[in-house]
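Collaborator request, handled under Task 6.
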Amino acid sequence: KNADDIRSIAIVSSIAGYHGLSTCPDYSATKACVKAWGEALRVKLKPEKINVSIICPGFVKSNITAQNTCAMPGILEIDEAAVIIADGLEKKKGIIAFPWYLRFSTWLISILPNFISDYIYSKLPNKA
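Structure tokens returned to the collaborator:
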């Protein structure tokens, strides 16, 4: 078999899966679960030549985000997000997370001591 024989699975999670957000705890929990599941599948399925990519977008303009009353830093148009996702899938990236600064900041907060991350997240406005 050659490299073209590799099959792929794309799983959609969210930047919110990197650390529990007080503004949306249920959403964060489900996205963290999906992210962890995809990461485990990626390793498990690699010997079978099945690539697993976990897509972790930030905010993308949609009917759902149109209802948000909170700030949505780095919000992208659907076509912009689609290009990033397609490029990541083409390159068989394990994690396709964007925008990079939301991924980095959420990851950074996730490794800080709880008293610091709790303080940061306590300052976020509540979603209506």
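The cover message to the collaborator said: "The chain has four helices and three strands. The mean pLDDT is 89. Please let us know whether this matches your experimental observations."
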